[in-house]
């Protein structure tokens, strides 16, 4: 875990999915089992760690593609399956359809990350403003409230509500205005290099990339295994 450049940090901003929230891996296991594929939640989780890197490299780093598009979501699921050793195109299509219908409008990111609350509490104890910037469909605030996490943040920016999504620097600028801090006084924590790190950097923020499976390789930014590790890095603990 490497540290960001020293700076007077006054605010820490978080992604939601794969940062404060975790995929419902058990639901994916059940959906696969119903279609004849046996696996475990741990295997799905590790496959997803690798798949997100491939999604970023093959899709988001190449073109300005919305993370919320059906095509991005379907490709994501197909990459998870590929990392599980399942290359059946028909199954990938079926799982894409399942994902779009599952638990609407919340979807598969309906679980709190085990370290999320501790990370948010530590940020508060350090005297930092805390906010969420998420590419989503308008449901992030409801999810965070339902999980008891919203009480630990000062604001939530959902791309569907504000009309702009990461990596566009404007959504980060909106967050800086809400936090009342300059770009140099804020750090963003997220799980996708092209979306989160480069987006934050374009707005003048430092960023911490979450890499729970050590899948990203060498990157020109701070890296942490968990969201709690990321906050510890920011506050210097």
Strand arrangement within the widest β-sheet reads 5-4-1-6-7-8
Q: Supply the CATH architecture of the largest domain.
A: 3-Layer(aba) Sandwich
The percentage helix is 40-55%
CATH class of the largest domain: Alpha Beta
Total tally of structural domains: 2
Report the β-strand fraction as a percent range: 5-15%
Spatial shape = globular
Rg (C-alpha, Å):
17 Å
Concise summary:
This protein has helices at 25-33, 41-60, 70-83, 89-101, 116-125, 140-146, 159-162, 169-179, 193-202, 227-235, and strands at residues 11-14, 21-22, 111-112, 129-134, 155-158, 186-190, 206-210, 222-224.
What does this structure look like?
It is a single chain. The chain has 237 residues and is α/β, with parallel strands linked by helices. It has 2 domains: 11-21 and 110-235, Rossmann fold, CATH 3.40.50.1000; 25-101. It is 45% helix and 13% strand. Strand 4 (129-134), helix 6 (140-146) and strand 5 form a beta-alpha-beta unit. The chain is globular, with a radius of gyration of 17 Å. 43% of the residues are buried.
Helix and strand topology:
Elements: E1 11-14, E2 21-22, H1 25-33, H2 41-60, H3 70-83, H4 89-101, E3 111-112, H5 116-125, E4 129-134, H6 140-146, E5 155-158, H7 159-162, H8 169-179, E6 186-190, H9 193-202, E7 206-210, E8 222-224, H10 227-235
Helix pairs in contact: 1-2, 2-3, 3-4, 5-10
């Amino acid at each position: 875990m490497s540290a960001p450049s020293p700076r007077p940090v006054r605010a820490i901003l978080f992604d939601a999915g794969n940062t404060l929230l975790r995929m419902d891996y058990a639901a994916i296991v059940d959906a696969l089992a119903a279609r004849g594929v046996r696996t475990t939640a741990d295997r799905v989780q590790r496959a997803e760690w690798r798949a997100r890197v491939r999604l970023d490299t093959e899709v988001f780093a190449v073109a300005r593609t919305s993370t919320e598009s059906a095509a991005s979501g379907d490709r994501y699921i197909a990459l998870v399956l590929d990392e599980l050793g399942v290359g059946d195109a028909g199954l990938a299509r079926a799982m894409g359809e399942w994902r779009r219908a599952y638990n609407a409008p919340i979807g598969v990111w309906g679980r709190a990350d085990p370290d999320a609350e501790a990370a948010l509490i530590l940020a508060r104890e350090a005297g930092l403003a805390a906010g969420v910037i998420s590419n989503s469909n308008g449901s992030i605030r409801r999810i965070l409230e339902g999980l008891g996490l919203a009480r630990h943040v000062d604001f939530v920016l959902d791309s569907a509500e504000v009309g702009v999504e990461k990596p566009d620097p404007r959504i980060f600028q909106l967050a800086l205005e809400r936090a009342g801090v300059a770009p140099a006084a804020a750090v963003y924590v997220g799980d996708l290099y092209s979306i989160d790190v480069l987006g934050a950097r374009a707005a003048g923020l430092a960023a911490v990339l979450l890499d729970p499976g050590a899948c990203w390789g060498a990157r020109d930014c701070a890296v942490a295994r968990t969201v709690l590790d990321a906050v510890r890095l920011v506050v210097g603990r």
